[in-house]
């Protein structure tokens, strides 16, 4: 027996430019937060049209500090979708707030504005709105709720709504640059938007050289990470174009096979490519069948948050979790790997039809 080399579910695209950028910082001896971090912050502002931005050590740290910048504290409610990773739940709890789960559209996974409206109370201080899988959420309907919105762009760097970058609609935008995200610095994050709020984020992210004892953290990004981030951000158009090209290849195969995907929407960068199956047993069978063919697939959200909190009443999130299968889609996929994936989809779907 021998192990089959798997096509991984996610894989970053890093090259010589990123390596040389990191090496240059290392050779300089100035590896902590410094000029490269400021350059990366400025580049994010210039690329997406923000007035200010502050880099952080992770996307979760960015969420935490964005909540603190908005004044979220003990007893304040923050609406978050159930169908999302636990980083949002943790960030609200870190801030001392009360997470209030909202349901999602079962076909897209994005927050249901109508359900969010029902969850709103006099204690609601903020909404965290992810643009899940690179697909723009229903921003206007969420803004109409009249509550400060933190746009979670961790999976949607480069996505747009009516030609305008996601992240520029709410009170603040939050990014993650983890290894599997749209662009990567290994670990890292950023908060962007209103300069007054971003200045608060800067205060909270570091504690050195302070005359007062206000709460602050060690949430800084290093210049090594930022140098990689600058190189990656320069390749964003390349990355998004490649993602959209692969998605078109998948669209053709799935449509011809009678399999369903979320309805198309303008501005989608396809961070993930979710296939909608009949239910949890079929999803798990597909994961196994694809693995037998050397392809790693996954549940795009490991577990909805209402499973973690023990709550009920989220049929959209439950349906999305049971039905969605995420197949590999990232710029580092070769044309040959894409062909292997599309052939496997045809084979497995053919077996199911027999």
Description:
- With 354 residues, this protein is α/β, with parallel strands linked by helices.
- It folds into two domains: 16-233, Aspartate Aminotransferase, domain 2; 236-352, Aspartate Aminotransferase, domain 1, CATH 3.90.1150.10.
- The chain contains 13 helices and eleven strands.
- A seven-stranded mixed sheet has the order 1-9-8-5-4-2-3, sandwiched between helices. Strands 6-7 form a two-stranded antiparallel sheet. The protein has a two-stranded antiparallel sheet with strand order 10-11.
- It is globular.
Lay out the secondary structure.
Layout: H1 16-28, H2 35-48, E1 52-56, H3 59-69, E2 77-81, H4 87-94, E3 98-102, H5 113-119, E4 124-130, H6 139-143, E5 149-152, E6 160-161, E7 164-165, E8 172-176, E9 189-193, H7 195-205, H8 223-233, H9 236-257, E10 273-276, H10 280-292, H11 305-309, H12 315-323, E11 324-327, H13 335-352
Parallel strand pairs: 2-3, 2-4, 4-5, 5-8
Antiparallel strand pairs: 1-9, 6-7, 8-9, 10-11
Helix pairs in contact: 1-8, 2-8, 3-4, 3-7, 9-13
């Amino acid at each position: 027996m021998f192990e089959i080399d798997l096509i991984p579910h996610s894989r970053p695209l890093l090259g010589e430019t990123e390596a040389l950028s990191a090496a240059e910082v290392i050779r300089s001896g100035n590896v902590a937060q410094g000029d490269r971090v400021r350059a990366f912050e400025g580049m994010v502002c210039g690329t997406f049209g923000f007035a200010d931005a502050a880099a952080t050590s992770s996307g979760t740290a960015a969420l935490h500090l964005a909540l603190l910048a908005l004044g979220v504290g003990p007893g304040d409610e923050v609406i978050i979708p159930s169908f999302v990773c636990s980083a949002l739940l943790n960030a609200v709890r870190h801030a001392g707030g009360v997470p209030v789960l909202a349901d999602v559209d079962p076909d897209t996974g994005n927050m249901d504005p109508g359900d969010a409206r029902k969850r709103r109370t006099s204690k609601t201080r903020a909404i965290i709105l992810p643009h899940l899988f690179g697909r723009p959420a229903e921003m206007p309907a969420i803004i109409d709720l009249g509550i400060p919105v933190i746009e979670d762009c961790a999976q949607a760097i480069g996505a747009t709504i009516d030609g305008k970058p996601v992240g520029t609609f709410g009170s603040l935008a939050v990014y993650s640059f983890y290894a599997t995200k749209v662009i990567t610095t290994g670990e890292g994050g950023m908060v962007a938007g209103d300069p007054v709020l971003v200045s608060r984020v800067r205060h909270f992210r570091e504690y050195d050289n302070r005359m007062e004892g206000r709460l602050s953290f060690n949430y800084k990004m290093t210049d090594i990470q930022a140098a990689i981030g600058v190189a990656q951000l320069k390749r964003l158009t390349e990355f998004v174009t490649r993602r959209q090209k692969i998605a078109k290849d998948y669209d053709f195969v799935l449509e011809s096979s009678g399999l369903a995907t979320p309805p198309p929407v303008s501005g989608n960068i396809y961070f993930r490519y979710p296939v909608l199956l009949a239910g949890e047993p079929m999803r798990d069978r597909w994961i196994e069948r694809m693995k037998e063919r050397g392809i790693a697939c996954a549940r795009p959200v490991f577990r909805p948050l209402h499973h973690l909190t023990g709550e009920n009443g989220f049929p959209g999130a439950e349906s999305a979790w049971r039905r969605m299968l995420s197949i590999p889609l990232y710029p580092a996929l070769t044309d040959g790997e894409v062909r292997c994936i599309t052939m496997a989809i045809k084979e497995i779907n053919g077996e199911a039809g027999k």
